Amino acid sequence: MTFQEQISQGIPSVLPSKKVRCEQISHAPKRKDILTEEEKKLSLSNALRYFPKEWHFELAEEFLAELQEFGRIYMYRFMPDYEMKARPISEYPAKSNQAAAMMLMIQNNLDPAVAQHPEELITYGGNGAVFQNWAQYLLVMKYLSEMTEEQTLHVYSGHPMGLFPSSKEAPRVIVTNGMMIPNYSKPDDWEKFNALGVTQYGQMTAGSYMYIGPQGIVHGTTITVMNAFRKKLGAGKSPKGKLFLTAGLGGMSGAQPKAGNIAGCITICAEVNPAAAKKRHEQGWVDELVENLDELVLRTQLAKANEEVVSIAYLGNVVDVWERFDQENVFVEIGSDQTSLHNPWAGGYYPVGLSFEESNRMMAEDPELFKEKVQETLRRHASSINNHSKKGTYFFDYGNAFLLEASRAGADIMAENGIDFQYPSYVQDILGPMCFDYGFGPFRWVCTSGNPDDLSKTDQIAAKVLKEIMQNSPLSIQQQMQDNITWIEEAENNRLVVGSQARILYADAEGRAKIANAFNQAIESGEISAPIVLGRDHHDVSGTDSPYRETSNIYDGSKFTADMAIHNVIGDSFRGATWVSIHNGGGVGWGEVINGGFGMVLDGSKEAERKLNSMLFYDVNNGIARRAWARNSGSLEAIQREMERTPNLKVTLPNLVDPSILDKLL
Known about the structure:
CATH superfamily of the largest domain: Urocanase superfamily
Number of domains: 3
CATH topology of the largest domain: Urocanase fold
Distance between the termini: 76 Å
CATH class of the largest domain: Alpha Beta
Strand content: 5-15%
Mean pLDDT: 94
Structural class: alpha/beta
Oligomer: single chain
Low-confidence stretches: none
Number of helices: 22
Number of strands: 17
């Protein structure tokens, strides 16, 4: 069968031969054995309902073996035989270009060069899934191949509920992931209901088909590291020869060494999974691999002495690095952590003193002991960071729930008031007041032609637009504008593409709309040869309610509410988004955050122009308005400026209270 025929058939008509996992790629760890016997029967019934009855006897035994061996039913037998990668949009069988674009994005999320555990349909973060099993993938691709522009596909945590009649104005796909009743959002609830096959953890951009490889976070990490050094060293001082120490080289965290190189510092990133570290080295995202701690100390001292710009992956546990650098007085200018601590008991964070393989065995065979080891490691980790902090290290939480889980483990991590953490999140100190409050966030696009020339043209268009905007930008956002102009002009030289021909930069509402309009015009004129998919990370001004990350710099008491993310998705859906998504969990953990996202296909039409102007405007300004109501000064400035430009926008603004009035009362 041709590729197009395989896509269009969905579940095959003939039972395919049994497949074995490829041992040359990374696989998800074995999940907790959490189901009762009756629940295992239910899990098998749930899995078998995708297939004809005559297959059930054979598949039931096979699926039970997967459930017992891996803790999940992935349906490996149904993995497609064709190469998994983003193809040019013209190669997909589809009645709608919008549907074909989504097929491209889905396959990019599952490309082995992009995905963390591709055969388990996990893109990044240890559990960030596109689908729960391969049957769901096959059905979604079939539905997309059949979809007209008067239908909408509804996807429930990976499961395609079906194509429903709608309209050309409606989104083509609605995605939800992990949307649990609030009292069923504890970590073990994810383990149980995911094992039953009824929900999944979509992370931020895995389950919404918008992941573009580690490039997606390189830019945000670069901006963060640059501004962290500005806070530590002062404006205008070079970070050459200065050290950034962190951990994690998996999906999103794999961007850190590349970002450090762009920022111009020494980056040391520890990773316990040798396959992940070697993958990033082969892709050119990290310069050197070091396996010996003694060698790492000497190499770091040399890099500092020579004021190098270099990235080094240490194959081992970061706690050993923090403790050894403390003993050897290796000064760490800035430090953080980007392990997947939102998922601490199932492969997101590994205990010190155990190998990667030993940890994975303990995780499955003795989860309580594994939890004890993780929490003991967190206490050591925090203690060593405290020692470095006393020497002058600037440490920040990278929104991965490090401080939250360390506090739950009893680490010495709280401020004197016993309420706050003694270290800020990077959003509180950097991205919140400098970017999100003004509407700057991770605007991204994918050239569906697959042609690098189209991507190069979009880089040039975006740079031109940003330079024109900057001429009239207020002083408060000049630094962000210049950082992004520098970024986009250097993007091609930094070899950021892994998988699809994609790009990202931080832009505000004005920047996003003007760049998108310029792209749409270039498609209409033929300068760009095929449609462009617009999107963003959920890590943005509006899309996410996350009290320990994106909304951690909202101080009016509302950071634990999730109205904004829900309004964002609903508002985007009727203003022109091609697809929208809403997730429980993502980045900081199941039950800790609600994420909303979108995708939009630009095809050069007037209809696309109308939709992009309406949707992008709301997508950003919804969050600025919420932050302004919380009395964030940057957002107050930004929303008042937007209301002057847009008379039809009327936002409720706060009346600021003189604190002395309250101090006299209480």
